[in-house]
Amino acid sequence: MLARVNPLSGVFGESWQLYKAHWRHFALIALLIYGLIAVISILLAVLLGWLGLLLAGLVGIAGAFWLQGTLIEAVRDVRDGRADLSVGETFERVLPSLNRIVIAGILLGIAIGVGLLLFIVPGLIVLTLWIFVIPAIVLENRGIVDAFGRSRELVRGNGWSVFGVIVLTFILLLGVSLALSLILAPLDDWLGSLIQQVVGNTLVAPFAIIVWTLSYYRLHALEGAPVSAEPLVDPDVS
Q1: Could you give the CA distance from residue 65 to residue 84 in angstroms, rounded to a whole number?
Q2: Which residues, other chains included, contact 142 with Cβ-Cβ below 8 Å and sequence gap of 6+?
Q3: Residues 160, 179: contact at Cβ < 8 Å?
Q4: Exposure letters 85-122 (e unless 16+ CB within 10 A, then b)
Q5: 8 A C-beta contact, residue 47 and residue 20
Q6: 7 and 161 in contact (C-beta within 8 Å)?
Q7: What is the 3-state secondary structure (H, E, C) of the chain?
Q8: I want to staple 216 with a disulfide (CB 3.0 to 4.6 A). Which of 7, 135, 149, 238 is the partner?
Q9: Which of 120, 222, 198, 131 lies closest to 168 in space, CA to CA?
């Protein structure tokens, strides 16, 4: 009997080629979002004290999923080899689904967090099953509840392959973080931390999102149905 081919084989190489060709586009999107999050967070902390810090944390979580949704849209745009949309147009494409992205992201974060507290393994299972929730919202225009079911449907039968991609992605992120820490060690702590955050958020994080988005495309292709290159009419939130 022939061994089953891993549908995600080579996805890191494909992601790297896409990233190299359009890294400035991806980095600019990330820089704008993280810059806005930083400004809002500082204002909240200055104006509201401890309550502002709490709200800033929520803004940071929402912003992280906003970034993921926007970069997923950017990946859809550049998969043909060129960026047809400007950065502003990319943001506009994501805006109609932003409420669903943020709400689904918060629910996903809570589920993964609770799972990790339960001896880690349940959290990893949840992360694997629901890794494609945000792509399902952005690329298939799914509602929140439907997106969770859609992610499980895509992962079904490919759980170990998806889990492997997630683990390798986090190992890569950790490796880059450790390398940056060593390189920046001679600098003052605050300056090294600032540079590490900027580099990590604008140059490294986008690559991880590209890997997961292209993994979505690989699994979707197994179904034989093309993914729309254009956003659809906004559905009901539920």
Answers
A1: 23
A2: 136, 150, 235
A3: no
A4: bebeebbebbeebbebbbebbeebeebbeebeeeeeee
A5: no
A6: yes
A7: CCCCCCCCCCHHHHHHHHHHHHHHHHHHHHHHHHHHHHHHHHHHHHHHCHHHHHHHHHHHHHHHHHHHHHHHHHHHHHCCCCCCCCHHHHHHHHHHHHHHHHHHHHHHHHHHHHHHHCCCHHHHHHHHHCCCHHHHHHHHCCCHHHHHHHHHHHHCCCHHHHHHHHHHHHHHHHHHHHHHHHHCCCCCHHHHHHHHHHHHHHHHHHHHHHHHHHHHHHHHHHCCCCCCCCCCCCCCCC
A8: 135
A9: 131
Q: Which two tokens stand for residue 237?
A: 């939130």
| N residues, the chain | 238
Distance CA 145, CA 142 (A): 8
CA dihedral 90, 96, 102, 108 (to 10 degrees): -100
Q: State how far the Cα of 66 lies from the Cα of 63, in Å rounded to an integer.
A: 5
Q: Give the separation between CA 176 and CA 201, rounded to whole angstroms.
A: 12
**Amino acid at site 139:** L
Tokens found for residue 57: 């944390």
The alpha carbon of residue 132 and the mean position of all alpha carbons in its chain are separated, in whole angstroms, by 9
- Give per-10-residue mean pLDDT for the chain (238 aa): 71 94 94 89 85 83 90 94 91 93 89 78 86 95 94 93 93 89 81 78 90 95 65 46
Note the pTM of the prediction, 2 decimals: 0.86
